[in-house]
Design brief:
Elements: H1 3-15, H2 18-24, H3 29-43, E1 48-49, E2 56-57, H4 59-86, E3 92-98, H5 99-103, H6 105-116, E4 121-127, H7 129-137, E5 143-148, E6 163-176, E7 195-199, H8 205-215, E8 223-228, H9 232-240, E9 246-249, H10 250-253, H11 257-260, E10 262-264, E11 272-280, H12 287-302
Parallel strand pairs: 3-4, 3-5, 7-8
Antiparallel strand pairs: 1-2, 5-11, 6-9, 6-10, 6-11
Length: about 300
């Protein structure tokens, strides 16, 4: 049995629908449904009456809901206490960030912070967007640096996780640069010859942001998904190798060998703008993290 199964069940019980709960948990609906069934299989009983619309908790589900909430609270509290006893709340700041931001945004932000504060240690947790959010909720990190899109809600209560803006990032379409300097694949493509598309995967944060942007475009993008990979660095390498087109964070493209092998695959209308936010886990309790947070607030006040 996994802790995330309990958290999934509690989200479903609160929101009353598989699609809404899956969105809140930042996971695809089929994957979310499989996790609920896995929990039911582990317990040996049905928790959800799927014949009703919207689905309702069975008597066993209603009985289990309170116990599940208590288990989740106890596990998070115990993990937080153990980590604090081990010293994470002392001279170490723990930062969670998606892979691509851990490589691009986090080093720059840390450099600015460390110039203004006494030396301190950092432990970086880099994962996909969904797991970074869960790490933050579970109290495993002092800070989360993440993307933000106004139409893609994140399940982070601002009372527990206040945030400040770190600016903007853009996703730009790139494909392999040919000998003439043009992109091998270009938007929008045609119905007869769709553009081979290197995607982050249905339901992922970045893919949802791209889909929302494409839905608002006056031109239809003719794309044929050929590879699915949630790591931007992997998609960058595949695009540079000529395997297709990928929307990549601008900061991740850079001028390294792979970056020099890429070319813009569309004009600026295809660019996707995303916010960058720094969230603070105010309940984690680290004095050093609190000093970092107050430094950020002071810096914003000066700006």
């Amino acid at each position: 049995m996994e802790l995330k199964w309990l958290e999934d069940f509690l989200a479903l019980a609160e929101l009353g629908g598989f699609s809404r709960a899956a969105e809140a948990r930042n996971v695809t609906q089929p994957a979310f449904g499989r996790r609920i069934r896995a929990l039911e299989h582990w317990l040996g009983t049905s928790l959800i009456d799927r014949s009703s619309h919207p689905p309702e908790l069975t008597p066993a589900g209603r009985r289990f809901r309170e116990s599940a909430a208590e288990l989740v609270r106890d596990m998070h509290r115990l993990r937080r206490d153990l980590r604090q006893e081990a010293g994470d709340a002392g001279d170490t700041v723990v930062i969670a960030a998606p892979h691509v931001l851990a490589l691009s945004v986090v080093p720059k932000w840390l450099s600015e912070i460390k110039r203004a504060m006494p030396p301190f240690r950092v432990r970086l947790i880099n994962d996909n967007v969904h797991d970074c959010i869960q790490d933050m909720i579970a109290g495993e990190a002092d800070f989360l640096i993440n993307f933000y899109h106004p139409q893609i809600p994140l399940v982070l209560d601002p009372r527990r996780f206040p945030y400040v803006s770190l600016g903007m990032e853009r996703l730009l379409p790139f494909a392999q640069r040919t000998e003439t300097g043009e992109a091998r694949h270009r938007l929008p493509g045609t119905a007869e010859a769709p553009v081979p598309y290197l995607t982050y995967g249905s339901g992922t944060f970045l893919e949802r942001a791209i889909d929302l942007h494409l839905a608002q475009m006056p031109l239809v993008a003719h794309l044929a998904s050929c590879v699915e990979n949630s790591i931007a660095g992997s998609l960058k390498a595949m695009a540079a190798d000529g395997q297709g087109l990928a929307w990549l964070p601008e900061a991740a493209v850079g001028t390294d060998d792979l970056g020099r092998r890429l070319a813009s695959a569309g004009d600026e209308s295809w660019n996707v703008s995303l916010g960058l936010r720094l969230y603070w886990g105010s309940e984690r309790g680290g004095r050093l993290a609190k000093r970092v947070w107050h430094h950020m607030l002071e810096r914003i006040g000066e700006d």
